[in-house]
Amino acid sequence: MKSKASHLFVRLTLLLLIGLSACKKTPPPAPYGPLPSEAQIAWQEMEMNMFVHFNMNTFSDMEWGLGGESPEQFNPTALDCRQWAKTAKEAGMRGIIITAKHHDGFCLWPSKYTEHSVKNTPWKDGKGDVIRELAEACKEYGLKLGVYLSPWDRNHAQYGNPEYLDYFHNQLKELLTDYGDIFEVWFDGANGGTGYYGGANEERKIDRKTYYQWDSVFSLVKELQPNAVIFSDGGPGCRWVGNEEGWANATNWSLLRGDEVFPGYPHYKELRSGHEDGTHWVPAEADVSIRPGWYYHKYEDHKVKTLPEMLDIYYHSVGRNSLLLLNFPVDRRGKIHEKDSARITEMAQRLKTVFETDLALQKTAEASNVRGNDKAYQASHLTDGNPQTYWTTDDQVTTASVTIDLGAPTEFNRVLLQEYIALGQRVEKFTLEVLEGEEWKQIADETTIGYKRILRLPNVTASKIRLNIQASKACPLLSTFSLYNAPALLLPPSIHHDKEGNVTLAAAEEGLSIHYTLDGSDPDSSSPKYTTPFLVDKPATLKAIAVEGGQSSGISLQHLDISPKHWQVLQSPKGKKEEVAKMIDADPNTWWESEKEQAFPQEIVIDLGENHTLKGFTYLPKQSRYISGFIQEYAFYVSNDGKSWGQAVAQGEFSNIRNNPILQTVNFTPTQGRFIKLKALRAIEGHHSVGIAELAVITE
Ligand code: FUL
What we know:
Elements: H1 4-23, H2 38-44, E1 48-53, H3 56-60, H4 81-90, E2 95-101, H5 130-141, E3 144-149, H6 163-177, E4 182-186, H7 214-224, E5 229-232, E6 238-240, E7 255-256, E8 280-281, E9 284-289, H8 307-317, E10 322-329, H9 338-354, E11 364-367, E12 391-392, E13 400-419, E14 427-436, E15 439-446, E16 453-472, E17 477-484, E18 494-497, E19 502-506, E20 513-517, E21 534-535, E22 540-548, E23 551-552, E24 556-560, E25 568-571, E26 592-593, E27 602-621, E28 631-639, E29 650-653, E30 664-683, E31 691-699
Parallel strand pairs: 1-2, 1-10, 2-3, 3-4, 4-5, 5-6, 6-9, 9-10
Antiparallel strand pairs: 7-8, 11-13, 12-17, 13-16, 13-17, 14-15, 14-16, 18-19, 19-21, 20-22, 22-23, 22-24, 25-27, 26-31, 27-30, 27-31, 28-29, 28-30
Helix pairs in contact: 4-5, 6-7
This protein binds beta-L-fucopyranose.
Beta-L-fucopyranose binds next to loops.
GO molecular function: alpha-L-fucosidase activity
Family: Belongs to the glycosyl hydrolase 29 family.
GO cellular component, one term: lysosome
C-alpha cells in the first residue's frame, strides 16, 4: 500500500509534467502562400475609408470632363476640409483619399508643371491648395491621407506621347513629397486610348499595359512613401474589386496572379473573388459612391443611398474580406452635402449598435484539435477579444471544429470571423451549426473568411454554436469568433405598385411585420397585416408601417391609382418603338428616350383603354446617371376619341426639374376622357430628346 506521501509525490510530478508540456513552446505554423506586408495589414485594419471626388467636374457638372475647362470655373464658396475629416472620423473611418487630379487634368494643388491648376483660379486668388488643407485637416482629426492621381489626362498636350510620362512622374513626386505621409496612392484603370470619348489627344492610342511604365511608377512610390499601399486593378498594394457598387463576392481571396493583372485589366470580374491560386497578396478594395455619380450633381440630391442600401454595401464589402472606400461627392461650396452626412451618421450609429455587444466574448471555446495541445493556440483565443491571439491546429490538420458554449440559450443573427492573416489566408470552406435544444442545426455553408467575414443570418436562439472548417489550404488560424444580435431595423416599408396593379410592401430587414391602411388613416399594429402582394386598381392612399415587439417605424405613404395594365402608347417621337412601353411599366428604374436632335414639340399619346375622370398627371423623368431629355415645358390634353383634343387641360413648366428630377405632379380640373397626350415643348439645356421613366394619371 502506498503512503499518502508517495501519492502526493506522484500527483505533484504529474502536475509538473502537465504544466511543463503546457508551457512547452510549440512553434507557430509556418507562413502559407503569399503574405501581406505590415503596411497591407495596417491598411486592411482601416476597414472603411472616405473617398472624395471634388475637382473641376464639380463645377462643370460632369463625370468625365474633357480637359478644356477653364480654371476660372473652379471656385468653391466655402471649402471646408475639416468638415470632411470630422464626418469621416465620426463615422469610424480611418483615412481620406482625394481626387488630386481626375481625367480632365485639373490639379487641386499648385503643381509646378502645369498651368491647369488651382493657381489659376479665382479661389483664394490662386493662392489656395486643396491637398494642403486636406492634409492639415486629416492631421487634426487623426486620419490618414491618400491621393488619387489619374494616369489618363485629357488636358495635357503630350498625353499619349512619352513626354507625358515625365509630367506624370513629376506630379506624383510633388504629391508624395510635399504633403506628409500618404497611406494609399490610387491609380485609376479608366483611360482613353479608345479614341471614343472625344477629349484632347484622344486619337493617340495608348497601350494601357505598357504606356505608363508602371514598374517605374511603382518604384517611385516605394521610394518616396515606402508605407503607401498602391491601388490599381492589379495592385500591387490592393486591388479594385471589379465593380463600382461596393461589393465583393462571398468567396474573396486576398490573392492575385499579380503578374497577369494591370490597370485596365479586361477580365476585371475576376477581381471580385481574387485568384485562389494567386501569387501575390493583393486584397480587395470596394469603391462606391453614396450617390449614383462620383461627382456632385444637384440633380442627385434625392438619390443618396438609403440606409438599407448602405448596410448591404458594408456587409458585402467589409463583411466579405474587402476594404470599403465610400465616396462623397463634395458640392460646389466645398462641403459634404447635409443629406450625405446625415446618411453616413445614420449608418455609423447603426453599425455601432449592431456591433456593440459581442455575445461570445469570454465564453468557453473548445476545439477538436489544438496545435501541440499548447495553450498558446487554444480555442479560447477566438473569444478573448484580442485579434492578435489565435487558435490553430497541428500542421497536418486542415479540417477541425470549434464549439462555443454560450452558457444559456442566446439569441443572435450576426457571426463575425477573422483569420490571422499575417501568416496567410487559408480557409476554403466552412459551415456553422447551432445547438437548439438537443438538435444541431446547420445555419451557414460558406467558403472564404480572410481578414474579416460577417454573416447576416435570420435570428436564432441557441446555447452552443459550432464552426466546422471543412477545407483549408494549410492548418487554419483564426483570431476571432464573435456573435451579435442586431436589433431590427425599423424603417418605413418600401412600396411598389406594379403594372398589373399589385402592391408589394417590403421591410428593411427580414422578420418584421408590416401593417397598412388604404383610406388615408394612420396605421398601427392592429391595422391589416401585409402577407402577400394585393391588388389596388383605383385611387387610394396607402400608408404602411413596420412593427417589431411593440415598436413601430415611421409611416411610408404613396398615392395609388389605376394600373397601366391595359394602356397603350399610340404615338411617340422617333425612337425605339419596341421599348416605348417602358414609360408605362410602373418601374421607375427603366425609361424610354426619343432619338436625340429632334424638333419640338414632341408628342406622346396614350390610350387608357377606357373612360376615366382624370384630374391630373404625373411625370417621372428618366432616373439615369446622365441627364438628357428632361421635359421642361409641356402641354397636356385629354380626349374621348384620340382625335379631337381641344384645349390643353394643363400647360406649364417643370421649374426645378434639372436640379431635382423627382416625380412631377400636375393637377387640373376634372375632365372625362380615354386618351391622353403629353406635348413636350422644350427640354432642359437645349437637349432635343424626351426621356420618360413613367407617365401616369391621377383619377377621381
Ligand atoms: C473610375 C473613374 O472613371 C470614375 O470617374 C471615378 O473616378 C471612379 C472612382 O473610377 O474608373
